[in-house]
Design goal:
Blueprint (H helix, E strand, L loop, with lengths): L3 H10 L10 H5 L5 E3 L24 H6 L4 E3 L9 H14 L3 E3 L5 H6 L1 E5 L2 E9 L19 H11 L5 E7 L10 H13 L3 E5 L7 E4 L2 E4 L17 E10 L2 E11 L6 E2 L1
Parallel strand pairs: 1-2, 2-3, 5-6, 6-7, 7-9
Antiparallel strand pairs: 4-5, 8-9, 10-11, 11-12
Helix pairs in contact: 6-7
Length: about 270
């Protein structure tokens, strides 16, 4: 999230990539680096110094580039914070900087087609969804942003599964500051694995939640924060990164790396 206090820190330092300086060597070493982008990029509209309307300045893309981010979930409850133009600009700006948007796209059909990235002959497929895209500001639904509808999820997984070796589902879902996953999180994550996904990566609660080995899949219900300005609670100042290594479609290693969130960016604990 590149708004509010994070934006102030970037402006003070004069470094738009500042939030990722400490963690970039680790992230950029990965073949694929995935994050949830909680604030849409936009070149129009005000920056809000406080509150729950997030707006990432275009130059903040430098942090994602420094960290070697390959793919970013754009399906979350802040996806429409910069209005329709922000949805469009966010997708285009990420693509312009060689980062694939996930969970929103130029059209609904493009969104639900997902993203395929091939590395070392292994095809990784990604799909992304959010429980809410309105954030209390909208009454309609923007069809370009995928929501957590289980029948739609199953349809999307069934279409993408034959084209890839590993299928990852991004899930923006849950209850903020709750340390246990909700029934909605569990139902959606289990449905994703049942449909054929290999990994579910969760975010939204802002605190770390459990991981689960379910059937032949891995579920990380919530990795907590990474770049954020929530210093009012101890549990929101800690998060996790997950490092998965594959040989073909088989997981070789899985490491959970705890991180501490500071005003100058996350660092390994």
């Amino acid at each position: 999230m590149f708004s509010r206090g994070v934006r102030r820190q970037m402006l003070t330092s004069g470094d738009p990539a500042m939030p990722f300086r400490k963690i970039a060597p680790l992230m950029s070493a990965a073949d694929i680096a995935f994050v949830n982008l909680e604030s849409p990029f936009s070149d129009v509209g005000p920056y809000h110094p406080k509150g729950l309307i997030f707006h990432a300045a275009p130059e903040a893309i430098a942090g994602l580039e420094l960290a070697g981010v390959t793919i970013a979930s754009t399906a979350n409850n802040h996806a429409r914070d910069c209005r329709s133009h922000g949805v469009e600009f966010n997708v285009a700006w990420l693509r312009k900087h060689s980062i694939q948007p996930l969970g929103s796209s130029e059209t609904s059909s493009d969104t639900h087609r997902g993203v395929i990235l091939e590395k070392h002959g292994v095809r990784f497929g990604f799909l992304g969804y959010t429980f809410d895209q309105q954030n209390g500001n909208w009454r309609d639904i923007d069809e370009r942003i995928a929501v957590t509808d289980i029948p739609v999820l199953c349809r999307d997984v069934a279409a993408l599964k034959p084209k890839v070796d590993v299928l990852v589902v991004s899930m923006h879902n849950g209850v903020e500051y709750m340390h246990k996953p909700s029934k909605s999180q569990q139902a959606f994550a289990h449905a994703a694995i049942d449909a054929g996904a290999n990994v579910v990566i969760g975010h939204h609660p802002h605190v770390v939640q459990a991981e689960e080995h379910y059937r032949n899949g891995l579920i990380f219900y919530s990795l907590g924060n990474l770049v954020f300005d929530q210093y009012q609670r101890k549990d929101t100042q800690h998060g996790e990164m997950v490092e998965l290594s594959y040989l073909g479609n088989r997981v070789l290693t899985c490491r959970v790396l705890p991180v501490r969130i500071t005003p100058t960016g996350p660092e390994l604990e």
